[in-house]
Amino acid sequence: MTDAVSPVPTQGPTTRSSVIRVGTATIVSAICGYAVLYLAARDLEPAGFSVFAVFWGAFGLLAGAANGLLQESTREVREVQLAPLNSAEPHTNPLRIALLVSVVAAVAVVGTAPLWSGHVFSESRWLSVALLAAGIAGFCVHATLLGVLAGVDRWGQYGTLIVGDATGRVVVALATFLIGWGLVGYLWATVAGSMAWLVLLLASPATRTAARLTTPGTVGSFLRGASHSIAAAGASAILVMGFPVLLKATSVDLGAAGGVVILAVTLTRAPLLVPLTAMQGNLIAHFVDQRDARLRALVMPAVIVCGLGALAVLVAGLAGPWLLRFAFGPQYEAGGGLLAWFTAAAIAIALLTLTGAATVAAALHRAYAAGWIGATLASALLLLLPLSLEDRTIVALMCGPIVGIVVHLVALRRVPAA
C-alpha cells in the first residue's frame, strides 16, 4: 500500500469491493458485539445486565453523537476529492479539530456528571463517569478518522479500524468472564476499543497520509456543519444505542423485565442497524456521487433493507424465543410475536438511517437534524403512553422514526439536483 491518496472511484468494481470490505468488517464487528452481550448476559442476572446495558447505551449514545464527525468529515473530504482544494482558500485539518472536540467532550461529561449520573448509573457511579469521559474522547478521533478514510476510499483501513474497536471490547469482556471481574469488567470492555485509531495511525503509513488531508473552510465553518450532524447523530443514537437510557428515563423501575426487553430490542435490531452504522461512510460517499439523482439513489438501499428486514422478522418470530432461551438462559423469556414486532421496528429505524445519510450527503444539515430530533422526541413521548413496557416500546420504535423519514424526504425532494 502506497502513501499516495488514490483517486475517488464513482461506480463499478471498486465501489463493490469497498462494500465487501466494509461488510466483512461489519460482520466481524457484529459477532464481537453479540459476544460481549452474550458474555454479559450469561455472567450477570437480568437485573445486573440492565445496569450494564444502561452504561453500554450511555456510551453508545455519546459515540453515536460523535458519528456526526464521521459524517461531516466524509462529506467534506469527498467534496475535496471531486473538486480539489484551492490553495488560496482557508483550510483546516479534520483530525486536529477532532482532538479539540475530544477534550471538550470529556470535560463536558465530567463537569455535568453531578447533574445526571446519580439518575443513570445505579452502581459504580464515578467509575462509569470516568470511563464514559475517556471513551468518548477517544471515539471522537476514531469517528473522524473513519470519515476521512471513507472520503478517500481507504476502505481497507476503514474496515481495520472497525474491527480493531470491536476486538478490543470482546477481548476485555472475555477476560472479565473468565476471571469473574463482574459488572466492572464489562464497563471497561464497553470503552476498550476507543483508542484503536491510535494503533492504526502508528501502524499504517496510508492512514497517516489520509489523516493529514485538509478541507476548505475554517475550524468554525467545519464545526458549524458538524454541529448539526452531531445533534442529529445524537438523536439517532438515543433511538439506537442509547435506547436503554431513554427507556429507563421513562420508566419507574426497569428491573428484570427491563433487562429482557433491552436484550430483545438490542438483538433484534443488530442485524440491520450494525451494518448500516458501520457503512455510514459508504452510504454518504454513494449519495455524494449520485448527487444528480438523490431520491432515486435511495431506492435500491431501501429495497435491500426492507427485504432483509422481512426475512429477519420471520426468523425472529419463529426461532427467536428458542434462540433467546438457548443462548442466554431460561430467565430471558420473550414471545415470538414480541420479537417479530421489535424486528419490524428496526426496519423503520434502518430506513430513517438511510434517509439521514442521503440528507447529510446533500449538505442539508438542518433537515437532517430536524428529522432525527423529531423522531426521537416522538418516540420519547410515545414511551409515556399508559401501556405495558413491551407495548409502548413497540409503538415508540415503530412510529417515531416515521416522523424523521418524512422530514428527510421532503427536504431531499425540495433541493435541486447538483
From TrEMBL:
The keyword Membrane applies. The chain crosses the membrane at residues 20-40, 47-70, 97-117, 129-150, 170-203, 230-249, 297-319, 339-360, 367-387, 393-412. Keywords: Cell membrane, Membrane, Transmembrane, Transmembrane helix. The keyword Transmembrane helix applies. InterPro entries: Poly_Biosynth_Transport. It is a multi-pass membrane protein. It is found in: Cell membrane. Its main location: membrane. One of its GO terms (cellular component) is plasma membrane. This is Membrane protein. It comes from Mycolicibacterium sediminis. The lineage of its organism: Bacteria, Bacillati, Actinomycetota, Actinomycetes, Mycobacteriales.
